[in-house]
Every structure is written in structure tokens, then in C-alpha cells.
Amino acid sequence: MLVIDIEAFRPLVDFQTDADGLAAIIKALPRRAGFDEILLPGERGSRTEAARGKTGIPIPAKLWDELAAMAKADGVRMPDIRGAS
How far apart are CA 22 and CA 15, in angstroms? Predict the structure, then answer.
């Protein structure tokens, strides 16, 4: 891990403005055939987190059934709602 105090080198607002500008330049670059968007680090994860926050984490039916069997063996009640895929 690397931690840098940006304000030790320049005003933070200037750095943020430059970072936003660079992101805009990268996003505007031409895309390869078959790609609709250029994603920056963290964007895919942030989108997945937001979607999972709304709809939950998908659990395949087979895994759900295995969890239900373990829960039953231990006397644990499973939730009534199942978002299996």
C-alpha cells in the first residue's frame, strides 16, 4: 500500500481537477470493436456493489440447496426469500 499526502505537493482541489480531467480524457478515447465503454479502476466493482445492494447477492440454486441442507442438519431456519439464479 502506498499513501501520499497530495497536499504536501500541491493543493488538493487542483489534483482532483486534474484527476477528473484525465479520467474524462481516458473515457473519451476510441474503443475497440465490441466494447461500449472504457472502465476505470473501481468502476465495475462499484456498479456491482450498487446492484447487489438493491437486488441482493445471487446464489445458485445448487448452493442454496446445499446451504439449506446444512442449516436443517443444524436446526437453523433459512430465510423465506431465495434469490437463486
Answer: 10
